[in-house]
Amino acid sequence: GVYDGLDQCPDTPKGMPVDEKGCPKLAAMKETELETSGMIRLTDIHFQTGKDSLLADSYQQLDAVAQALGDWPMLKIEIGGHTDSRGSSARNLVLSQGRAAAVRAYLLAKNPALSPKMLTAKGYGKKRPIAPNDTPENMAKNRRVDMTILNADVFKKELEKRHATMSSAASDSLKK
Questions:
Q1: Which of 9, 64, 78, 1 lies closest to 33 in space, CA to CA?
Q2: Closest residue by Cα to residue 95 from 148, 53, 45
Q3: Contact by Cβ (8 Å): 78, 43
């Protein structure tokens, strides 16, 4: 939907919703991640150091997640908070729980279509690193929020239903 000369993201997959520059819309990217992996991983959510207060530079990412999750009201999502290895295990567990709860509260406030029953918050502290905690870059990867589908069977059925509906609609339009 964007002319080649104006398209700033020419490798966008066909059919993905794009903005006026031809780049994928953030909410669509989050929804695609959810559909393909069963989770949304956010490594760019920031909090005040040592606290569970969200920083404003996280809002755009969280707004996109709130929008994407609004299309899936039947899902049960765990918001998992993770920290790097600095500090005590007990402190990191409390911190990660507070951060997961802060993300949950933000998402619920941002999108009234989201039900409190849909989202749970759990802190994992430093128990589940995705990279060694040996460099600042790797430590940053471990400070993350993972949103994982808990009822994958319901998600799979709904996804199949939506794909069947889309295929049927495409078939009907070809017949016309």
A1: 64
A2: 53
A3: no
Sheet holding 119-125, edge to edge: 39-42, 144-149, 77-82, 119-125
Tokens of 7: 């398209």
Nearest CA to 38 out of 91, 93, 90, 80 is that of 80
Q: Measured at the alpha carbon of residue 70, what is the angle toward residues 19 and 46, in degrees to the nearest 5? A: 75
State the Cα–Cα distance between residues 42 and 102, nearest whole angstrom.
14
Which residue, among 102, 96, 101, has the nearest Cα to 124 in the 3D structure? 96
Residue type at position 34: L
Tens of pLDDT along 68-120?
898 899 999 999 999 999 999 999 999 999 999 999 999 999 999 899 999 99
The model carries a pTM of: 0.82
Please report, as a single letter, which amino acid is at residue 119.
L
Euclidean distance between CA atoms 74 and 77, whole angstroms: 10
Residue 20 token pair: 């006026």
Q: 162 to each of 8, 28, 31, 165, how far by Cα in Å?
A: 30, 15, 13, 5
Burial class for 7, CB neighbours closer than 10 Å (0-12, 13-18, 19+): middle
